Fold:
Amino acid sequence: MQREARLIRPLARRFSEYDKLAQAASANTYRMERALADFQRLLSGFSDTADRRQMLDWCAEQQHRIHGLKEEFRFNFGAELRSALAGQGFLLVGQFPTLRAGLYTLRLDFDAGSAGIYWGPEVETIRTRVPLASEAITRAVADFDRNLRSPEFHPEGLLALVYQGYQRECLAQHIPDAGRVLLTAVLREVAFLVQTKRFGINPVRGNFRDYSRIQFGFDLFRLKQFECLRAKGRQMHMAVATFDSTTDRAKALWVPDNEQGEGTYYSYLSFAAEGA
Structure:
């Protein structure tokens, strides 16, 4: 009796939480499911009485209701998400649970009530456990894309940094002139070259400017778009990665081919004299 007495107050609290969520059931379907599971977990600690059986019957009714709400949610969610993304300039294609929106892949988990956002064909993870709501997913994709497309992009300046990073890596690895170096090694050099003077004076985390694999891959894509691949009389070349290398992050980098999410894995970079 003492044990059950201790459970009554939290059980009532869970019921109250569920009741509030149920007042906007369409928007709270997955939260209702979790709240009901908590209610049932507490209810399992009570003795088998008529009241407990009545509450178990009520739980079964609510589970049936939630199942119907989830089916309705899945039916309407695709149209809502497509409309929300279109408002930000993204075309949504594909079938549940995996969808594509431009350069991004969306993986929807209806059971968990969340979504994952990935770069390209799930090459890099951008965010996980985004609430399964069209507004939240659209905002996460649009915000990331906006930061990726920095208005400060200057093709000639970036190519100069890539060439400088390439030269530094050639020197460090004793690679001959116009030789091939790993693209990921050039990324490491460029990541340091883009740092501000503040980082050079005090190289702490707060002064570090992020420069990710995704950003480098996208910047290389933009260089190809601008056809800006010549630096100091040398032509930049990227070697396509072998199939085995595509699964090794240290040996390959994914670069988009277009805005629809098609792309290519590259392993090596070189700068050869024009005509060579």
